[in-house]
Every structure is written in structure tokens, then in C-alpha cells.
């Protein structure tokens, strides 16, 4: 009797285990799918963040900032040249021209000197 009860109990537990096996396999598969999709999303986010970092480093690199400084100096140089042409064409008075031209040339030379100092202190 005791043996038969144990036998029945074991058979019942074995049936329950077999029934749970498919559920366990299904849950394992779901976990693998979730893990894979989360990993792909995380990798994509990481790649995007790396690309953004690379872009920012490029944008604010020594070379890029020195180039921007040169472009700003060139722009002021062109502006002072246009002002000079206006004076030569008689479109402005000398009293108006001198302070404007001086301001632009001082700004130009500050930018050029800053660029030269930056270029000499940075290994390009």
C-alpha cells in the first residue's frame, strides 16, 4: 500500500514535470528572444551614442576650431576690404570709415594671432 502510494505519487509528479517541460522550453525561448531584442536595441543605442561622440569630437577638435577661427578672420578681412572699397567709391566719409575699419582690422589681427598661437601650441 505504501509502495503503491509512492508509485502513484511519483507517476503524478513525473506527469506534472512532463507537462511543465513544454512550458519551461517556451519560457526559455521567450527569454532568449527578449534578451536578443534588448541586446540589439542596446547595441544600436550604443552605436548611435558612439557616432554622436565621434561627431562632437570632430566638431570641437583642435583642427576644426583653428579652421573656424581662420574662417572668422577671413570673413572680417573681407568685410574690411568691402568697407575700403566703399570709401574709394565715395559711398562713405573718412570720419565714418576710420573707426569702423580700425575696429575690423584689430579684430582680424586678434583672430589671426589667436589662430597662430593655437596652431603652434597644438600638434596638428
TrEMBL record:
One of the Pfam families matching this protein, by short name: Mod_r
- The organism is Ceratopteris richardii
Places the protein is found: Endosome
Taxonomy of the source species: Eukaryota, Viridiplantae, Streptophyta, Embryophyta, Tracheophyta
What sections of the sequence does the record tag as coiled-coil? Answer: 10-86
> GO biological process annotations for this chain's record?
protein targeting to membrane; protein targeting to vacuole; ubiquitin-dependent protein catabolic process via the multivesicular body sorting pathway
The chain positions of domain VPS37 C-terminal read 43-124
Would you tell me the Gene Ontology cellular component terms? ESCRT I complex
* Designated name of the protein: VPS37 C-terminal domain-containing protein
Amino acid at each position: 500500500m505504501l509502495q503503491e502510494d509512492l508509485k502513484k505519487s511519483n507517476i503524478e509528479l513525473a506527469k506534472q514535470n512532463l507537462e511543465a517541460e513544454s512550458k519551461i522550453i517556451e519560457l526559455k525561448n521567450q527569454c532568449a528572444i527578449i534578451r536578443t531584442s534588448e541586446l540589439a536595441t542596446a547595441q544600436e543605442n550604443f552605436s548611435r551614442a558612439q557616432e554622436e561622440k565621434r561627431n562632437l569630437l570632430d566638431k570641437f577638435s583642435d583642427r576644426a576650431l583653428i579652421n573656424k577661427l581662420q574662417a572668422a578672420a577671413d570673413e572680417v578681412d573681407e568685410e574690411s576690404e568691402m568697407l575700403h572699397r566703399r570709401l574709394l567709391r565715395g559711398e562713405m566719409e573718412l570720419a565714418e570709415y576710420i573707426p569702423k575699419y580700425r575696429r575690423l582690422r584689430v579684430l582680424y589681427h586678434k583672430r589671426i594671432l589667436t589662430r597662430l598661437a593655437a596652431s603652434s601650441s597644438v600638434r596638428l
